[in-house]
Specification:
- By secondary structure, the protein is of the alpha+beta class.
- The protein has two domains: about 5-235, Hsp33 domain, CATH 3.55.30; about 240-285, Alpha-Beta Complex (CBS domain Like).
- Helix content is about 35%, strand content about 30%.
- A hairpin with a 3-residue loop joins strand 4 and strand 5 (about 85-90).
- The chain is elongated, with a radius of gyration of 21 Å.
């Protein structure tokens, strides 16, 4: 099925629910960065987690997740916005941790460290940031802990990437169920039971379910408001103009040396792996004083 995000909340004000299918987005991210199976799962979960948090906010809000672990995968940095755009990278995306049965060793690949979540909006004077220790390295549990401790929002978070035997991304998805203030304890208990009975989102998506069907499983017969849909996508705002402006910050002396040696300046965007090449004459045209 096509990538989609569905969101709604119960009429009684007990919970909000967001369900995400992001197979194409995660596949593109993994391919752009040449990620190993372990790297694809880690990066995919982080991207989807950022999307689930960002699409709770107001228009224009952005969320950044920075996962700093001491494992071989290195740091992960991802951003997403309320419109459904996301981008990100892992410092060492080709890392393959040892297998543990059917597990990819994600905990060992990420290691111990901390998770920083930053929310920002153009209208705010400053961003809001919260930091929690990594409790599992599986990312979903770490985000749930952040939401509870830093934002006081009890939440059930599921994130998954289903891989083909060759390591290719076959399905990727997640959901976020959040308790709203004043919710009845009995209603929440019912939701907790449904969450426990619901298969992992990546398994459901791989089996052919869509976001609305998963939403139905999570909500059951609970009346809900209109379901909103967003189309998530991998999107990086890098352009040649931005790269050129960054290159001009090198300073006149260094730019002069590049021009004199008639070298080509190669710049790679960390977030999307797009490679930009600036020939010496192009640098000279934009920096005539060099």
């Amino acid at each position: 099925m096509r990538d989609a995000l569905a969101r709604t909340f119960a009429v009684d004000g007990s919970v909000s629910v967001r369900v995400l299918a992001a197979t194409e987005l995660v596949r593109e991210a993994a391919e752009r960065h040449g990620a190993s199976p372990t790297g694809a799962v880690a990066l995919g979960r982080a991207l989807m987690g950022a999307l689930l948090l960002a699409t709770e906010g107001q228009d224009g809000e952005r969320v950044q997740l920075h996962i700093r672990g001491d494992g071989p995968l290195g740091a992960l940095l991802v951003t997403a916005d309320a419109a459904g755009s996301a981008r990100g990278y892992a410092r060492n995306p080709g890392t393959n941790a040892p297998l543990h049965g059917a597990e990819l060793g994600l905990r060992e690949a990420i290691g111990l460290g901390e998770l920083t979540v930053e929310r920002n909006h153009p209208s705010w004077k400053r961003p809001y940031a919260g930091i929690v220790p990594l409790v599992s390295g599986e990312i979903a549990q770490d985000l749930a802990r952040y939401l509870l401790e830093s934002e006081q929002k009890p939440s059930a978070v599921a994130l998954g990437v289903y891989l083909e035997p060759g390591g290719q991304v076959a399905a990727a998805g997640g959901y976020l169920v959040q308790k709203l203030p004043g919710a009845d304890a009995g209603v929440i208990a019912d939701f907790e039971a449904r969450v426990e009975q619901t298969l992992h989102p990546s398994e459901l998506l791989h089996a052919g379910s869509d976001v609305d069907e998963i939403l139905e499983q999570l909500l059951g017969d609970v009346p809900r408001h209109r379901v909103d849909h967003i189309t998530p996508r991998f999107h990086c705002p890098c352009t040649m103009d931005r790269v050129l402006r960054a290159a001009l910050l090198l300073g006149r002396e260094e730019i002069r040396e590049i021009i004199e040696r008639d070298e080509e300046l190669e710049v790679r965007c960390e977030f999307c792996s797009e490679v930009y090449r600036l020939p010496a004459n192009e640098l000279g045209r934009h920096c005539p004083d060099a």
